[in-house]
Amino acid sequence: MEKIWFGLVLLSLAAHAFAQLKKELHMMQLNSYRNSRYWSWTKKNFSQKFVFSILLMAIAGVLALLKIASIPAYLVWIFGAGFGAYRLLTEKHKKKLAFTRRAKTLFFTSIGLFVVANTAVVWFVPAQFTMLTLVLMDFMAFGWLILANFVLIPVEQRIAQWYYADARRIIKSMPQLKVIGITGSYGKTSVKHFLTRILSEKYNVVMTPGSYNTPMGVTITIRNHIKPIHEIFVCEMGAKQIGDIKELCNLAHPQIGILTAVADQHLDTFGSIENIQKGKFELIDALPKDGVGYLNFDYEYVKNHSPIAHVENHAYSLHQPDADYQARDLQYTAKGMQFSVYHKNEKVMELETKLMGEANMSNILVCCAVALRFDVPIKNIQFAVKNLQPVKHRMELKRNPGGITILDDAFNSNPAGAKMALNVLKQIEGGQKVIITPGMIELAEKEYELNKVLGEQIAEHVDYAILVGPKQTLPIQEGLKNKNYPEDRLYIARNLTDANQHLMKIAKAGDVVLYENDLPDTYNE
């Protein structure tokens, strides 16, 4: 009978271990399968992540030390492990685990390592300490995942190299294909979508889908999406460290480069704003002698960089009078924005769009500049701009059935973008102006100070503030206090669900709500 109970104990442990490994695989995926980034995340979230496993380990330790092997003890154990597995498997996530080929390989390899280790425990560890040791193995789920990832690195590298080489072969086999590379601290995804729509008025265009802005993402796009009929490839290029953009350029070989911004984003991986500048300018450096670069002079670390001598450079700006391309005469309307495009101080065209905010105006401006170079007729550009759709979660204007206007700017907030979004919120027609935000991340040592500034800006623009995450939003709370923001106009939510529930209590028809950033699952408190 005792063997049956022990078997049930092992099954409950296996269920909890499976759930724990699946959760850790999700976090590893969100950290780009990089052991160093995943380990840094693990250290930051250690107590939060493993409090339940530690409780199980404590129970097992007590049972071992007291040599308790009774049915009640087994029931406590089975219920605890089973409940823990259920809790992990039913957690809600903003971005679900994608069981790609790599994810499956890593998951089953880590399970294999776990099974081998636990089999050894059952055979060689004294019986009274078996449960305690097995729980320790379960507790070390992150370790099995790191080990499995390390073991698989050579295999994944060989696979990636083959795909990468095949993608390069495809690009070289299409000399007629024009490749436009887009990078920047932010704005690149919007520019990609807008430019593809405008150029499609005259050309057959393909772009990198979703957030496929890594070497593997671009490789997949080239191998699966580019066809002989395509004339232009619009390629988004992301980077977390120096060398990332260079690797992408060696793959795609862009002839035109767009640099949307160099600013305080991904400081935790780049280390400094100077490194971000160097990393982003790898795109312009990689252009051929007949290449053309479009540079956003509204950012200091774009404007102050020495011109890349071997390529044709064009500056674009909303505020710099010496830029080649400028957007002026901005007017907000009930339907969106109206503004004019100038080249060398001569008006080229007037535009209207349903999109909102200066960031969108800047993105449209550079798209128009590139489209003019590709000889897209002005009337076609105007038609395309008028019909541009907002990129999801990037200053997306919505209206819910209750008459509340939503400004959805929930994707990847940054200091410049957040300030712009607050300005739009203040200017847009409506009743009470509300913000829901957890603040900004990936700003390294500047993160606290920049979020405190965000709090001060919120105090000057917003009637009611809902902050998501008591710990995460401490610097925003400090910024609000610095401006004597009334406490009865502030609510600290536990999570986004709590924030939305509170919004329904205080909002009414005619109010305008700005969602500024939505942190990934790795930042859940």
Question: Mind sketching the topology for me?
Answer:
Layout lengths: L1 H29 L4 H10 L1 H20 L5 H19 L11 H24 L5 H10 L1 H32 L5 E6 L4 H12 L5 E3 L7 H10 L7 E5 L7 H9 L3 E4 L7 H4 L2 H8 L1 H5 L5 E5 L3 H4 L8 E6 L7 E9 L2 E8 L2 E8 L4 H16 L4 H9 L9 E4 L5 E5 L5 H13 L5 E5 L9 H15 L2 E5 L5 H9 L7 E4 L2 H11 L5 E5 L9
Characterize the structure shown.
The chain is α/β, with parallel strands linked by helices and 525 residues long. It folds into three domains: 2-154, no CATH class; 174-386, Mur-like, catalytic domain (UDP-N-acetylmuramoyl-L-alanine:D-glutamate ligase), CATH 3.40.1190; 396-523, Mur ligase, C-terminal domain (Protein-Tyrosine Phosphatase, Chain A, Alpha-Beta Complex), CATH 3.90.190. The protein has 20 helices and 15 strands. Strands 2-3-1-4-5-6-7-8-9 form a nine-stranded mixed sheet, sandwiched between helices. The longest helix is centred in the N-terminal third of the chain and has 32 residues, at 141-172. The chain is globular. The model has no long low-confidence stretch (mean pLDDT 86).
Please tag this protein with its features.
single chain, 525 residues, alpha/beta, UDP-N-acetylmuramoyl-L-alanine:D-glutamate ligase, Protein-Tyrosine Phosphatase, Chain A, 3 domains, 9-stranded mixed β-sheet, 6-stranded mixed β-sheet, 15 strands
Question: Mean pLDDT score, rounded?
Answer: 86
Between the first and last Cα atoms, what is the distance in angstroms? Answer: 43 Å
> What would CATH call the class of the largest domain?
Alpha Beta
Shape: globular
Which secondary-structure class do the elements indicate? alpha/beta
Give the number of domains.
3
CATH topology of the largest domain: UDP-N-acetylmuramoyl-L-alanine:D-glutamate ligase
CATH architectural designation of the largest domain: 3-Layer(aba) Sandwich
Round the Cα radius of gyration to an integer and report it.
27 Å
- Tell me the CATH superfamily of the largest domain: Mur-like, catalytic domain
Q: Spatial order of the strands in the main sheet?
A: 2-3-1-4-5-6-7-8-9
Report the portion of residues in β strands.
15-25%
The total of beta strands comes to 15
Q: Kindly state the percentage of residues in helix.
A: 40-55%
Low-pLDDT stretches: none
Largest beta-sheet characterization: 9 strands, mixed
- Count up the helices: 20
InterPro entries: Mur-like_cat_sf, Mur_ligase_C, Mur_ligase_C_dom_sf, Mur_ligase_cen, MurCDEF_CellWall_CoF430Synth
Protein name: UDP-N-acetylmuramyl pentapeptide synthase
Keywords: ATP-binding, Ligase, Membrane, Nucleotide-binding, Transmembrane, Transmembrane helix
Domain Mur ligase central: 182-371
